[in-house]
């Protein structure tokens, strides 16, 4: 597989972002009251469950992260549309995401709603800003779409025996594996360092930020 022309679509950046994606989800779920940072389908489901039980306060703890996730998507899209021809907008997104997550590490357990909202905001920014690896549509903050695409490519390979489909399938499975690795790392760090462990995501995103200084990345993409 050839090197990606842009760092934003490179395997190395995809690995880092998938690690961060898995870490964020396990951090919010295991450390911040069972709320998902990325898996908004789960949050929407639980919002409905608690509304049906008349527990509106608990429903809000799942609804507001969904809202912040949506705001993160919109914010990244607006930055792209308005400033994409002036700044390296994806690199700016990574920097802001790193700062947000660093701040989350300073929020105590008594303010989990605020922490989960900020984490979901960062996730929304990431999912909107980084949607491809080597030209393939791949998410680094969730797995269901990647799993579908991986299996579709495996099926296509079994039918056509074209190696390209197998390579694509392995790429999708690799991103899923990195997401799981991020979850494993996140749970391990939570056990040992507590809520401040999210700072490791900021460190990983700083590495991604530095990678994006490469000449392969076009500022107006």
Describe this structure in words.
The chain has helices spanning 11-31, 40-52, 56-83, 89-104, 112-129, 144-160, 163-193, 199-211, and strands spanning 132-133, 136-137. The chain is mainly alpha-helical. A two-stranded antiparallel sheet has the order 1-2. 44% of the residues are buried. The model has no long low-confidence stretch (mean pLDDT 90).
Please outline the helices and strands:
Elements: H1 11-31, H2 40-52, H3 56-83, H4 89-104, H5 112-129, E1 132-133, E2 136-137, H6 144-160, H7 163-193, H8 199-211
Antiparallel strand pairs: 1-2
Helix pairs in contact: 1-5, 1-7, 1-8, 2-3, 3-5, 4-5, 4-8, 6-7
Q: What structural category arises from helix and sheet content?
A: mainly alpha
Strand numbers in spatial order across the main sheet: 1-2
The percentage helix is over 70%
Supply Rg. 18 Å
| Mean pLDDT metric | 90
Q: How far from one another are the termini? A: 22 Å
The unreliable regions are none
Binned strand content: under 5%
Query: SSE order in H/E notation?
Result: HHHHHEEHHH
Mass-distribution shape: globular
**Largest beta-sheet details:** 2 strands, antiparallel
- Total helices: the number is 8
